[in-house]
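Please, structure for the following, as tokens.
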Amino acid sequence: MTTRWHTLRWRVLVSVTILLSLSLTQVTEGFPFVFNTNRKVINWTVPEDNWEIHSVPRSITPHVELKKYPNRTNPDPGQSDEEFLARLRNLKRNDTMARMLWYDTTPDGLSYPPFVDKALKLFNLKQVAFEIENSVMSKVSCTACKAGAGLLQHYIRAGKTKGEIIKLIYEFCVNLNIQSPRVCEGVSTLFGSEVIYVLQRVNLGPDEICSFVIGDACGDVYNPYHEWEVIFPPVPKPPVAELSMPKEAAPFFKVLHISDTHYDPHYVEGSNANCNEPLCCRLSSGRPSNPNDAAGKWGDYRKCDTPKRTVDNMLEHIADTHKDIDYILWTGDLPPHDVWNQTKEENLEIIKETVRQMSEKFPGVPIFPALGNHESAPVNSFPPPYVNQVDISIAWLYDELDVQWRRWLPQSVSHTVRRGAFYSVLVRPGFRIISLNMNYCNNKNWWLLLNSTDPATELQWFIYELQSAEFSNEKVHVIGHIPPGHPDCLKVWSRNFYRIISRYESTITAQFYGHTHFDEFEMFYDPHDLSHPTSIAYIGPSVSPYYDLNPGYRIYYVDGDHDTTTRLVVDHESWIMNLKEANLYDYPIWYKLYTTRAAYNMKALRPVDWSNLIDEMADNQELFDLYYKNYWKNSPIRPVCDAECRKRMLCDCKSGRSHDRKHFCQDVEAKVDDGSSKSWKSWLYRGLTNSVSTVTHTYEAVSQILK
């Protein structure tokens, strides 16, 4: 799910509680954020979980029978320097010739009453909203979070009922025009109950809550309830051998990666694409005020999700173009972004419908799914197994996933899917795929405030699977939804995950995620030697254009079955549909945007090769510009990327551990700063030189005339 949207509930709840707190100054004495320090309201402890990892059935029989494709050719091993430069020139020429789509934004014409205006200036809610949507937090968001969490706890302790608190949230949301009345009602009702339930049971204050949720921007507050470490078996880490280059002519697997479909069954062509709600292009969005605001037939660059015809067209194109796919990775986020009015029933219907689509378009092709954060209702709500009350348990989702996923997965995974929506499957002899439920690292999952210690015992199970794979000499690919280095992943969870990747670096040969909607990657290094890269996480592009993006998918070529296989990704391609042209000509065309090794002139795709690419992009502006174009899936409305943007993006590539950028990014940022400084000095020097030269020539000319 895109990071620019999925925290709508934070925007509403934080904004409302800040303004509520300011209003308290009218009726209370002293500073409004001084609350009762008696935190215990409900005597609640985490129930015991006696789940035995060793008793869980394991997939030990190869699950995939490979088909024979006699006309299959090996992926392009690369291009010469001349071909590579020619490709760059063509890409640049194509960019220049591309017809630009109109994209008008209207200024915010809202006027607020004096009290509200004062509050907005004091807390800068627009900056808070921007930071939350982009998962880039500062002290502004931290202050807002502390105020909001503190006031909610204050009202809970003051004895206000759940209904009273939800009503207050709704009224301020509407009065401040934070969202439309129906969005305010949906958010306050859907999320208010869950948040209140959790805050009634946590023994934490605002400082601890916000440090837990926001991370570094809110300080590293020690919190014994959320400090934990996984346990490794007493088995020494094997010596790490240097990864060899995959053989060019060796057999390979062709793998399709689809992520973040966000299929919207209520998308309507011609409806308002420029509405005042978080998701538009529906009948409920109203009529467009002018032709430019009408939703396109095949989708829209604004805040709109994917129409059914676009999903169908993409799947038909893939089935026709890539007839030799060996298996599919499907990394979640199926429902649309209308999180204020979703129901469990509707989300389950979308899951069933998309599973039907995939089964019909790819009969007989194994599919390995991972769970996104949008599949639950409300969004991001994934209670751990010990929360087993019927009305709030997550069993309604996990049980149905087990039924739907069983089309492609062996029966042995049923136990872990129903427990926590994670599983392990032996794909081929010596090759295993492990699918993780990354919602247990999601810092927007309020249930983790109760207890974040390895929810569902997933990471400890993960270690058990990896150790078994190491004993069996198996290589492992890991799939999930939220990338572990993304700011949406809890710091303590990400830190433990990072240690696991380092310990089993010889076993894990690739990772695959979605969530961001962009086309990117994430690096992992040895925690004790940051010069030694250990793993690469591939982050696939979204099918949904939400927002400012073209729809896309990826094809990977994985080292296949042979005696010296590495199970590394040998190469990968990104394919997109030009949404602007599809709407303009009513004819969608999917095409290959780039092939990785050819585009970036990489000899292989080992972790060390990706790490070197980051260093090269820090030094080479043209190479970075190409990556930036591909990152945005060649969107015609992508913003300009300045030096700060470049540093942030390269730091994202470098950081497989969330909320810990200072440990990974100093060298890359210094290179970019140094390059910018050199460019500035060179520009100034050239300017001064030209000025002096002009003056000299003018003086000489005048002298000649005077003679």
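The first strand starts at residue 252 and ends at 258. Residues 628 and 641 are 8 Å apart (CA to CA).
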